[in-house]
Amino acid sequence: MWQTLIIQPMVNLLLWIYDILGHGPQMFGVAIILFTIVVRLITWPLNASQVKGAQAMQELQSDKEWQDIQKKYAKDREKLAQEQMRIYKERGINPFASCLPTLIQFPIIIGLYQAIIRAMAATPLDMLNLARTIYPFQNVSNIIPLNSAFLWMNLGRPEGIPLPFEVSFLPNGFPLLALVVALTTYIQTKLTMPATPPNPNDQAAAQTAAMTSSMAIYMPLMLGWFALTFPSGISVYFITSNLLGILQYAATGRANWSNLIPGSKNNTPAKK
After folding, report:
1. DSSP bridge pairs for 25
2. Residue 134 is part of which domain span?
3. How many structural domains comprise the chain?
4. Which DSSP state fits 144?
C-alpha cells in the first residue's frame, strides 16, 4: 500500500514534471519545486484549517463566556473539561488542528526521499526497481538518466559548499541549505504560535501551546539534520514548502512577527 499510494505516484509525478520541463540542466531541481507547489495545493485545506484553528484558539482566550466558565469551574476540573469540549464543539474548534499539517508532512518527506533515490537509479538494481515503478504512459527512454545538477548541488547527494580545509564533522563542506532549512522551519513555526499565552485553566490550549513551543525547537533541528544527511533534493523541498507556508500564513494578516525576536515582549499579532 505504501508503494502504491505514496512512492509510485511521487516518482511518476516528479518524472512527469521533469519530462515536461525538457530534461536539461537545473530542470530536476525545478521539478522538485513545482512538485512541492502541487503538494502544497493538495494540502491547502489542511493548512487553512491550521490557520483557522490557531485563530479560533487565540480568540477564545478573550471570549467572555469562556472566561466566566473558567472562573466558575476553576476547582472542578471534570466539569471544566466537559464545558470546554462543549464550547469547542459548538464553535467548531479543533485544539490540535495546528499540529496536523506538520504530522502529515512526515509520510510526504519519507516518500519524497525514497522517490528521489529511486529516480536517481544509481545501480542496475535501482534501474530495475525504477522500471517497475514508472507508469506505462511515461517515456522512460527520454527521461533516464536524470540530470541531477541544480545550482551548485547534486540533488542525489547531501549538499555542501567545499571548504578550503577539512572539517571532520562536515564531510560534505559548509551546509548552507541545512542552515536555510532550519531557519525557514523556525520562522514558519514561530509565526503560527499564539500571540498571548493561554489561560492556565485551559488545559487543552496549554497543552497545544506547549507542543507548539517544543516543535519550534525540535522541528528546525530535526529537518536541519535531515537536510545535512539526506539528498539535497529533500532540502529543496523543505525550503520551498517552508517559504510557501510562511507566505500563506502571512497573507492572513495574523502572523505574529514579534515571536521571531527571542525575549520579545511585543506579542501583538499583525492586524488585517
Report:
1. none
2. 2-260
3. 1
4. P
91 lies in a domain? yes
Residue with cell 502529515: 104
Q: What is the pTM of this model?
A: 0.72
Long-range contacts of 83-86, Cβ-Cβ distance < 8 Å, separation of 24 or more: 84/202, 84/203, 84/204
| C-alpha grid cell, residue 125 | 538494481
Q: What phi and psi, each to the nearest 5 degrees, are found at residue 149?
A: -75, 135
- Vertex 110 angle, CA 107 and 183, to 5°: 95
Q: Vertex 48, ends 46 and 52: CA angle to 5°?
A: 115
The three grid cell numbers given for residue 23, joined into one nine-digit string: 530534461
Asked whether the beta carbons of 171 and 52 are under 8 A apart, the reply is no
- Amino acid found at 18: Y
Classify residue 270: in a domain, yes or no: no
Over the stretch 49-94, which tens digit does the pLDDT of each residue have?
A: 666 766 777 777 777 887 788 788 777 778 888 888 888 777 777 6
29: which 3 cell numbers? 531541481
Task: Say which residue the cell 540542466 belongs to.
Answer: 25
**CA 3, CA 10: separation in Å to the nearest integer?**
10
Q: Is residue 128 part of a domain?
A: yes
Asked, for residue 222, whether it belongs to a domain, the answer is yes
Q: Cα–Cα distance between 227 and 175 in angstroms, integer?
A: 8
Tell the residue number behind the cell numbers 494540502, with chain if given.
43
Residues 180, 159: Cα–Cα separation, whole Å:
12
CB atoms within 10 A of CB 35: 22
